[in-house]
Amino acid sequence: GAVVSQHPSWVICKSGTSVKIECRSLDFQATTMFWYRQFPKQSLMLMATSNEGSKATYEQGVEKDKFLINHASLTLSTLTVTSAHPEDSSFYICSAEPGLAGHNEQFFGPGTRLTVL
Amino acid sequence: QKEVEQDPGPLSVPEGAIVSLNCTYSNSAFQYFMWYRQYSRKGPELLMYTYSSGNKEDGRFTAQVDKSSKYISLFIRDSQPSDSATYLCAMRARGGKLIFGQGTELSVKP
User: Fold this and answer.
1) B47, B48, B85, B101: most buried by Cβ count inside 10 Å?
2) Do B42 and A111 touch (CB under 8 A)?
């Protein structure tokens, strides 16, 4: 149980294009989903917290207009990197919380590697 | 000072060794403690989740929490080459966001 999937697992795009990454909780409903970014040999950096049906909360320094987050249902959140540039190349990972009382774990997706040429 | 400190390693041990991984923290509001394992180019996998001081065992893994010292540990018994990965501690306060340690890179040599 507690499986989170991401699609695509890797993507290469040209500078200036937009890329959408999907995050799905497969066997539970996730009231809250999170988006992280990870650079090589570094820990995860929280970008934003997404609650179903409401606007995402972004961490300081993360551009809302560049990283658009939509949490349309209890099992799906999407991250769109708009007008991507080479510096946006990174490993993007989502996580989801079951939202049940007493459960504070986060379960992570397998990650999406984005390369912007 | 970072809220969570973790020795990044790398840590190299022979197969069969007992591995000890540690994190210290400064925020006394942290109540939930997790250990994740991350293989290269993969997402973190939840290994252990605890919310009280003391030990919790799951197979070859034991998680230990000492809230009075603000110190958590993960022990791996009979380590295997397949345990080679980066281990991340993470913790959070009630209603707070998850704060990660830097991660310790572990290599278990056959």
Assistant:
1) B101
2) yes
